[in-house]
Write a structure and sequence with these properties.
about 500 residues; alpha+beta; FAD/NAD(P)-binding domain; eight-stranded mixed β-sheet; six-stranded mixed β-sheet; binds flavin-adenine dinucleotide
Length: about 500
């Protein structure tokens, strides 16, 4: 297509992707006075950030001090690695240092923006409580960051399909070409382009090329994150990093088709403050609506169910080896199955420590919560044959699978899927979030943040992925604003 058929516009900073990392980058850049355009390929903002629990881990925060917790960055750095001791030789120590030092500033930056947190909560092997949870959940990050980005003047464009990064003869990235609402546009960026398109869990071809078989077969929580930023950057010479590293797959229930009570709450800071107070001081029975409401998300069933005798079967009723974790389920038809149990297990899983699932630091959900909150996942039948008929399974398979369960009613919880929460690989970046070539040299004016620019860090432990997304976005937005503008193009 000739250039004169393309609409041409100018900006200072372009951000690709409107999840936690991209929105944070847009807020920072726009607050530095940059003409900032955020391009999001979906019809709404939020990405995987929107579907997360909302925990971020940080050290040295005001909230920790208010709770009388003494903490420091060096200990946080050490404790983070205690989650992944075997990963040390492959880790990215410089980014890890940056994350340890900056996470606390990010938590306070968000708090100052109106995000309300509960906590901090403990999570061993962290030696002190570091988990700060957004109230009422991760939607709050998206809402407050979007509000702040717009207030600072960010131009947010949805359903934008970016085809390529524009590169000048000297190698500098000078913009993008994209299509939005049928119009092809060329958008120039005088300072730089920040890639924040998340991970690649949604790309079957990339999963098959880089991950172990079970992870490749698992169902991605967010099918829209197809690693587009990785592809765009590769075409201008970027190196991919640690593409084979992945945590999971994990057992997760599908999201509920109907929003829960918490999902319907407006995201006002004052209301969230009341919610946080209520959450801290209310007795357990008053928190039941919260618990039930959380069950709409992709919750993970507790492994204790199997330890206490529950059985995992595939969609035909054949028993799967839970010793292999969700890998066995990933290899089954549709990466789906059911958790079967009897009356004894149903009544055992009605109080702590026998919960069916938990949102860490927030709430525990028991058998009755699932009956009430997720009737679509809870199935009961008086006999094995009746359950087989109800779930369209082979009665012979089911009889073999349940031979140790005794007489009485049968329960099935599911479907449960082998899901891929996120992938860990992405672009190679330096501590300034600049995208690197294979020779270690930065590509001028190209940055990557969040899941797109994780560069070897394995972020195991609650709250590290999100805090990396929000921190790297915040810092990259500032750094790109400080650089000299390119000559007009
Ligand atoms: C169920 C679940 C629970 C989780 N809970 C937690 C938690 O409590 N704490 C924690 O630390 N981590 C958690 N995580 C992980 C965490 O949510 C992610 O690591 C984090 O949100 C990644 O942020 P991001 O901005 O990099 O990506 P995303 O939030 O996924 O944003 C990427 C955005 O880029 C857009 N995009 C993709 N391609 C393009 C393109 N070509 N052009 C324009 N836009 C594009 C996507 O649509 C998306 O909006 C959880 C994940 C899941 C799935």
């Amino acid at each position: 297509m000739a250039v004169d058929q393309v609409e041409v516009e100018n900006a200072d900073v372009i951000v690709l992707g409107g999840g936690g990392a991209g929105l944070s980058a847009a807020v920072s850049a726009a607050r530095c006075g940059m003409r900032t355009v955020l391009l999001e390929k979906c019809a709404e903002l939020g990405g995987t950030t929107r579907w997360s629990v909302g925990s971020i881990s940080a050290a040295g925060t005001r909230m920790q001090r208010a709770a009388g917790i003494t903490d420091n960055i060096a200990d946080f750095r050490i404790d983070m690695m205690a989650f992944v001791p075997d990963h040390a030789p492959r880790d990215n120590p410089r980014l890890r240092d940056l994350l340890a030092a900056e996470a606390g500033h990010t938590q306070e930056w968000l708090e100052d923006m109106g995000v309300v947190f509960s906590g901090p909560f403990p999570e061993p092997p962290n030696r002190v409580p570091r988990m700060h949870n957004a109230v009422p959940g991760s939607r709050m990050y998206v809402a407050k960051l979007t509000q702040a980005a717009r207030r600072a003047g960010t131009d947010i464009r949805l359903e934008a399909d970016v085809h390529e990064l524009l590169q000048a003869d000297n190698g500098r990235i000078i913009g993008v070409e994209y299509t939005c609402q049928g119009v092809r546009r060329r958008l120039h960026a005088s300072r730089g382009v920040i890639l924040a398109t998340g991970d690649f869990a949604g790309s079957r071809s990339k999963r098959e090329a880089h991950l172990h078989t079970a992870a490749a077969r698992a169902i991605p929580v967010n099918p829209n994150n197809t690693g587009d930023g990785l592809e765009l950057a590769k075409r201008v010479g970027a190196a991919w990093h640690s593409m084979d590293v992945v945590l999971g797959p994990q057992f997760r229930f599908p999201r509920s088709p109907s929003p829960g009570f918490i999902e319907r709450l407006p995201l006002w800071t004052w209301l969230a403050r009341i919610g946080a107070f209520y959450f801290k001081h209310a007795p357990a029975w008053m928190l039941k609506p919260l618990v039930t409401s959380l069950l709409i998300a992709n919750m993970s069933p507790s492994e204790k169910l199997y330890k206490e005798g529950a059985v995992l079967v595939d969609l035909d009723g054949a028993r799967l080896d839970v010793g292999k974790g969700a890998n066995a389920l990933a290899m089954a038809r549709d990466a789906a199955g059911y958790i079967l149990f009897n009356e004894r297990i149903a009544s055992l899983f009605s109080k702590y420590p026998y919960y069916i699932s938990t949102a860490p630091g927030i709430a525990y959900a028991y058998f009755a919560d699932y009956q009430r909150g997720r009737p679509d996942l809870m199935h009961r039948a008086p006999t094995t044959a009746a359950l087989a008929a109800k779930l369209n399974m082979s009665v012979e398979h089911l009889r073999v699978s349940l031979k140790d369960q005794g007489e009485g009613p049968r329960y099935a919880l599911g479907p449960v899927n082998a899901m891929l929460t996120i992938t860990e690989g992405g672009l190679a970046v330096d501590e300034q979030h600049r995208v690197l070539r294979a020779d270690g040299q930065p590509i001028d004016a190209l940055y990557a943040v969040g899941g797109t620019g994780q560069a070897g860090m394995l972020l195991k432990g609650h709250g590290l992925h999100l805090v990396w997304a929000l921190t790297s976005g915040r810092l990259a937005g500032e750094l790109v604003s400080q650089r000299a503008p390119a000559a007009a193009v």
